[in-house]
Amino acid sequence: MSELIALERSEFIATVVLNRPEKLNALTKPMWRLLGETIDALSADDTLRCIIVRGAGEKAFSPGNDIAEFATERANKAQAIEYGRIMHATARAFSACRHPLVAQIHGICVGGGLEIAALCDLRICGVSSRFGAPIKNLGLVMAYPEMTPLVRLAGSDVALEILLEGRIFDANEAKEKRLVTRVVADNEVTAEACATAQRIADGAPLVARWHKQFARRLADPRPLTDAEYEECFTCFDTEDFRIGYAAFLAKQKPSFVGK
User: How much is the pTM?
Assistant: First the structure.
């Protein structure tokens, strides 16, 4: 694994780290590619139950793309299209990830950093975290695949407010805008994200994957098929269901096996 994207593992939980602390974890083209490849690989790992995504250190999740790279990698439309393909492949990897994703947000979470956080299922930040997407000041637009998670979370009117004004706003406003799930004291962000991931990992992993699948499907206006409806009851044939209800009756903590 490249040092630009660090990977840590503790039993059922993986932590993916945007690892450029000297640049506040500003994103580069190789980082976007490695991030997508890492999420794809973790999604395919059936032994995993939760993924934490964070920036290195506690000054920033990420301020977005490294502007210094623009002169060589995004200097014109053709280059931007190629760069966009990599970014948007990574966005698809996040969207398709089977395991729950928890964004652990310290400090700055702006631009592309906000896009990555918005692609996670839960987003936990500290009270001093700052958010926004001031790309209008660069003469840039946020492409469709990048806007999609922002609009999904905040609505099109709030997404436009963020993009048209380009303000940097605080954690409480981010919570009001539904961009974050939970705001805690700065010195509690790591512990809260880890505790959240552990609560997820303690649950039945197949159920977590089904719930993610169902939530994605409910965003699609097409009527559910009979097969999709019947899939809601497949959990009753799993070993984890038998483990779960037996443990409940015995007043014990279940130890799920993911089968």
Answer: 0.93
